[in-house]
Design a protein that fits this description.
It is built from 13 helices and eleven strands. The protein is an alpha/beta fold. Strand 8, helix 9 and strand 9 form a beta-alpha-beta unit. Helix 2 runs parallel beside helix 3, helix 4 packs parallel to helix 12 and helix 9 packs across helix 13. The structure holds flavin mononucleotide (FMN). The site of flavin mononucleotide (FMN) has 27 residues, from strand 9.
Length: 349
C-alpha cells in the first residue's frame, strides 16, 4: 500500500473520499481519515468564517491527515438585465410548486473566491489542499508551498494536466467523464473535454510526471484495480458515499441512487451554469427546455440556490440538483466508516 501518494500524504491506503460540496461533512472526512484513507473537506465558494468552522470541526474529529478542497474559478462579469428571464422562470416554477420564493433572494449575490480563504488555510496550518475549476495563481502556489503544503489539482484533459504540472502542482486528479458532480474543466475557450477515465488516466499516467489520482465510477475491487493498472497512484471516490449516514444529501436524493439507471444520469448546466453530472429531474428538464440562456457559473448557481434550498427542506428531489456519477446504482446507506472498510477489503483482495 506504500506508494508515492501514501508517503506524500501520510495515509495508509491510497483511497480518497472525494470532496463533495453540499454532501460531504466533517464527520464523513474524519471517518475516512481515521480509517487510514484521505478524507476531504469541501469548502469551495464558502465564506472564510464558515470554512474555518468546518476545518475546526474536522480537526476535532480526527488527528489524521485530511485534505481541504477549494474552487479556483474566476467570477465572470455579468449584467443584472441578463438575469431577468432566468429569474422570472425560477419564480414561476417555484410558485407553481408551492414554494414562497422571494425575488430578493435572486439578486445581490456575494461570491467568495479561494483568495478569501487563503488566510484561514494558512492559519489552520492545512497541509493538503486540493482544488478544482481552474489553477491556483502563482503567488498562492508559492505561499502554500512555503508553508509545506501538498497541492492537488483537477484535470479533465491532458492539456489541463500539463498546465497544472507546469505550474508546480504536486498531484493531479484525472476526472473522467463518468464522474458525479461538476466537471473540473477550466479551459473556457475550448469545448468541454469529454474523455472517459479509461482513456484519460493512462494518458496522464504516461505523460505527466506527478502522481495521478483516478476519479469517476470507482466503487469496488474491479474498478480500483483497473485504475491502479492504468497508472493511478490513488483513487478518489465520490458517489459511493452520497447515501452514507454522514452525508448531507437529502433522503429523497439518497433513495434515488438505488436503482438509478446510468442513462438517467446526465451532464447539465441547468443548476449552476457549469457542466455537472446528476440524475435527470424536472428542474433540469424545465430549465433546459425553456431555451432561456443559462448564465455562467457561479451566477446561475446563486440564482437557483434559494429555490433548491426550499426544495431540500421539503425533501423534494424534483427541484434540486441530484449529483451522481454514472456508476451510482445501489450506493450503500451505511456508515462512511463501513463503506471505507469495504473499499479497503476489496483493495486487499
Ligand atoms: C455530490 C458531489 C459533489 C462534488 N463536489 C465536489 C467538490 O466540491 N470539489 C471537487 O473537487 N469535486 C467535487 N465532486 C467531484 C468528485 O471530486 C469526483 O470527481 C467524483 O465524485 C468522482 O466520480 P464518482 O462520483 O463516480 O465517484 C463532487 C462530486 C459529487 C458526486
Amino acid at each position: 500500500m506504500k506508494n508515492d501518494f501514501a508517503q506524500r500524504t501520510g495515509v495508509i491506503y491510497p483511497i480518497i473520499q472525494a470532496p463533495m460540496l453540499g454532501v460531504s461533512t466533517p464527520e464523513m472526512a474524519a471517518a475516512v481519515s481515521n480509517e487510514g484513507g484521505l478524507g476531504s473537506l469541501a469548502i469551495g465558494g464558502l465564506s472564510p468564517e464558515r470554512s474555518q468552522t468546518l476545518i475546526r470541526q474536522t480537526k476535532n474529529l480526527t488527528g489524521k491527515p485530511f485534505a481541504v478542497n477549494l474552487f479556483t474559478h474566476t467570477i465572470p462579469p455579468y449584467e443584472e438585465s441578463k438575469m431577468v428571464p432566468m429569474r422570472r422562470l425560477l419564480l414561476e416554477m417555484a410558485k407553481e410548486r408551492g414554494y414562497a420564493l422571494a425575488e430578493s433572494e435572486l439578486q445581490n449575490f456575494r461570491f467568495y473566491t479561494y483568495k478569501e480563504q487563503i488566510d484561514v488555510l494558512i492559519k489552520e496550518d492545512i497541509k493538503l489542499i486540493s482544488f478544482t475549476f481552474g489553477m491556483l495563481d502563482d503567488a498562492t502556489i508559492q505561499l502554500f508551498k512555503s508553508n509545506g503544503c501538498t497541492l492537488i489539482g483537477t484535470a479533465t484533459s491532458l492539456k489541463e494536466a500539463r498546465l497544472l504540472q507546469e505550474s508546480g502542482i504536486d498531484m493531479i486528479v484525472a476526472q473522467g467523464l463518468e464522474a458525479g458532480g461538476h466537471r473540473g474543466s477550466f479551459l473556457d475557450d475550448e469545448p468541454l473535454p469529454q474523455v472517459g477515465l479509461f482513456s484519460l488516466l493512462p494518458q496522464l499516467a504516461k505523460q505527466v510526471h506527478v502522481p495521478v489520482i483516478a476519479a469517476g465510477g470507482i466503487r469496488d475491487a474491479q474498478t480500483m484495480r483497473a485504475a491502479f493498472d492504468l497508472g493511478a497512484a490513488a483513487v478518489q471516490v465520490g458517489t459511493l458515499f452520497i447515501a452514507s449516514k454522514e452525508s448531507d444529501a437529502i433522503p429523497a436524493w439518497q433513495q434515488q441512487l438505488s436503482g438509478v439507471d446510468a442513462t438517467d444520469i446526465l451532464l447539465t448546466r441547468a443548476f449552476s451554469g457549469r457542466w455537472a453530472r446528476g440524475i435527470r429531474n424536472e428542474m433540469m428538464e424545465r430549465i433546459e427546455a425553456s431555451g432561456i440562456p443559462i448564465p455562467p457559473y457561479p451566477i446561475q448557481n446563486s440564482l437557483t440556490a434559494a429555490f433548491r434550498k426550499l426544495a431540500q427542506q421539503a425533501n423534494d428531489s424534483s427541484y434540486t440538483n441530484l449529483w451522481a456519477g454514472q456508476s451510482a446504482g445501489d450506493a450503500p446507506a451505511d456508515n462512511t466508516r463501513d463503506i471505507f472498510r469495504f473499499l479497503v477489503k476489496e483493495l486487499k483482495g
